[in-house]
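ok so I'm stuck.
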Amino acid sequence: MNRKLIKLIKILSADYFTPFSLLEQKFNLSELSLFQSIKLLNEYGIKVIYNNIGCRLEENIIFLDPKKIKPNINTDLNMLEILETVDSTNDFLKRRPYIYDIYQICISEHQSSGKARLDRKWYSPFGLNIYLSLKYNFPQRTISLSGISLAIGLGIIKCLNSLRIAKEKFFIKWPNDIYFKGKKIAGILTEIINESDKSYSIIIGIGLNVNMHQHDKKVNNNWTSMKMISTQYYDRNVISTLLINQIIQDLETFYVTGLDGYLHEWKRNDYLFGKKVKFVSSNQEVIGSCVGIDKLGRLLIMNKEKQVNSFCSGDILIM
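replied:
not stuck anymore, here's the structure
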């Protein structure tokens, strides 16, 4: 998404119809080029409506604003970067220098190459959802971070529950997805970066579907959003603040308790428990019933011989 399109989005976010002639003049575009740009916005999931004079967004966008987020964070931040567009918020933080014992945070309106597990892409339309990454730098390998994405997933559920979006429950699907009524609403991508022989960083990336409400040919239909659940439009500044505070709290808790402190909560929110699944990895395929996780966050599957095996990485297909 180029800066001209981003500027067009901001202008069309007004509460009135902006005349076509003014847009053509402001952007030095022909009528045809202007309508091609508007068509492209619709393809990005940003719907534009018209009258005889001009056009505007069907629904105005409340843009991300550090002035609305940073003052409400419960700890000092070394860096809070709000971007209009980026390849990936996780990759952006990878490029930041290592500074001991600080939180670095990046949120973007749009990602051109949003990342999910197993090198998959995360669909990231402009101005509709949250694409947020947090980086924390550890001075030494004092704790095991095995299972940290599970703890963060439970934290996301706490945030969603605090907003009272629905009476029904949100669930976490091992290892990193949040589900509502069988459809994905959020995903987590956790990456460990070796900074030196002793120090390392963790980057926690979160994609949360907030105001996206149209199904797009670029993504399958097995998803939902906060708006689709509640029919309300949400200020992403408020939700970003909740998420950042919760992630920081969970990192501090995890540092003390490890995954042990989350196992009871996991049992209440386990999407896969009792379901028959097929587990697929690069070197094996297993069919059985999910019976929870172990203390390292590995998935436990019981086969037809009643043997329970643990798995740390792979794809899960519900049968």
